[in-house]
Design goal:
By secondary structure, the chain is an all-alpha fold. The protein is built from 16 helices and no strands. Helix 3 packs antiparallel against helix 10, helix 7 packs antiparallel against helix 11 and helix 10 packs parallel to helix 15. The two termini are 19 Å apart.
């Protein structure tokens, strides 16, 4: 059985990028700003204990996603039902995010459990979402289209922040907590509304089976095959290892940026929202600009440039003297965030064997993309808890970017499996 792959038109690309608009409402309001601060300050009671518990919650969600994503990605390829898997994960994320409205002060276990479910839904869904990229455009445009997706995502984040900003005017005062919790429902609503077009209009592979296959059996079998194939596609393996390392640093920055801003630099809640609005705006520009750059100089060189920028960001954050300076650092981080992730997705698409997109992206997004976040987030929270100094935690992230650069140098970007 050979699936029929059909190249999509501009509308298909638009629908695909619209999902990025949708899901970043979750990432900015639940992971980056709103719920992460609410959990630390209100649910967990603040201080280093809040950092540690948040780090554990993020790490557990990423670890569980890393375990299941490669299997489900392989199953999706075998059964040609990527959209069905994506729908299930998306629905789980939206439902759990909405239920965070009911998490109050001291509800640590419930707050962690609902977040873990929501984050598995969000991160697990990216496996199937990213796997559509090779189907909707040609290899020479991977960087540009991937950049469009991240740019649309930053627009979604910015819109979500602007909608939620009035709800945070009263901070975490007791009388304003219901408004803060309402922002979690708003994020879930935006996720639901703008993800719907993908499920209505995006094309998926169609394969006929004489006997209905077992998803799990197919998945585990394909994962075993993938592990064997990685010996053949050693270049993919080299890139996955590099991505595993440097992506750890990126995800750790995303998870703890707002906590660092409030605790170490004394940002108010409103100032944090403004900071992330600056990050999202610079992310739009960075994704679009570096998308074109990626198609010109190659994804590998683009990633290397952005890893150097990330290294500069964490070093500058360690020494940052004022809020004003941190806004500038946030702008650089925002421009590098979408660019490095878009270029990574492009290079992975270039190196991935045809007809095995979801399977290999299961390793990319799942085992490497999610498991990588286990180490950095836990390490940040642990250092902060032991030393009480978040600046040391930030500086430690630089090691991931240095190691990632060294490993990326071993990847041959002149090879393509397409």
């Amino acid at each position: 059985m050979t699936p029929s792959f059909v190249r999509s038109n501009r509308f298909q690309i638009f629908v695909w990028t619209l999902f990025d608009f949708a899901n970043t409402s979750y990432s900015v309001m639940i992971v980056a700003v709103g719920y992460s601060l609410y959990f630390k300050e209100v649910v967990a009671g603040g201080s280093g204990r809040g950092d540690l518990l948040w780090g554990i919650a993020v790490s557990l969600s990423m670890l569980l996603t890393a375990v299941i994503a490669p299997v489900l990605g392989a199953a999706a390829d075998f059964t040609s039902r990527r959209k069905r898997f994506l729908f299930g994960f998306t629905l789980a994320s939206i439902a759990a995010s909405s239920l965070l409205f009911f998490v109050g002060p001291g509800d640590v276990a419930a707050g962690m459990l609902l977040f873990i479910v929501a984050n598995i839904g969000f991160e697990g869904g990216l496996v199937f979402y990213d796997a559509f990229l090779p189907d909707i455009t040609t290899e020479r445009s991977y960087g540009r289209v991937s950049g469009y997706g991240f740019a649309m995502g930053y627009i979604g984040s910015l819109v979500t922040l602007l909608i939620a900003m009035p709800l945070y005017a009263g901070g975490f005062a007791a009388e304003n907590l219901e408004n803060v919790r309402a922002s979690f429902v708003i994020a879930a609503g935006i996720f639901l509304l703008f993800s719907a077009p993908l499920f209505f209009f995006m094309r998926d592979h169609r394969v006929r089976f004489d006997v209905r296959p077992s998803y799990l059996r197919a998945g585990f079998g394909r994962v075993a095959d993938t592990l064997r194939r990685l010996r053949e596609y050693r270049n993919v393996g080299r890139f996955l290892l590099a991505f595993f390392i440097y992506n750890d640093g990126i995800l750790t920055v995303i998870s703890f940026a707002s906590l660092f801003a409030t605790q170490t630099l004394g940002f108010t809640l409103q100032e944090v929202l403004v900071l992330f609005a600056v990050v999202q705006a610079s992310g739009i520009a960075g994704s679009l600009a570096f998308g074109v750059v990626t198609d010109s100089i190659g994804a590998k060189r683009t990633i290397a440039v952005n890893l150097l920028l990330w290294l500069a960001v964490v070093v500058a954050a360690y020494f940052v003297p004022s809020k004003e300076a941190f806004y500038a650092i946030g702008a650089v981080a925002g421009s590098s965030m979408g660019a490095s992730q878009a270029a990574s997705r492009s290079l992975m698409a270039q190196l991935t064997p045809q007809h095995h997109e979801a399977e290999f992206f299961g390793f990319y997004d799942g085992l490497c993309g999610k498991a990588s976040a286990v180490v950095g987030t836990f390490l940040f929270g642990l250092i902060s808890y032991i030393t009480g100094d978040q600046r040391l935690s930030v500086l430690s992230i630089g090691l991931f970017f240095v190691a990632g650069l060294a490993l990326l140098a071993r990847v041959d970007d002149t090879q393509s499996a397409r």
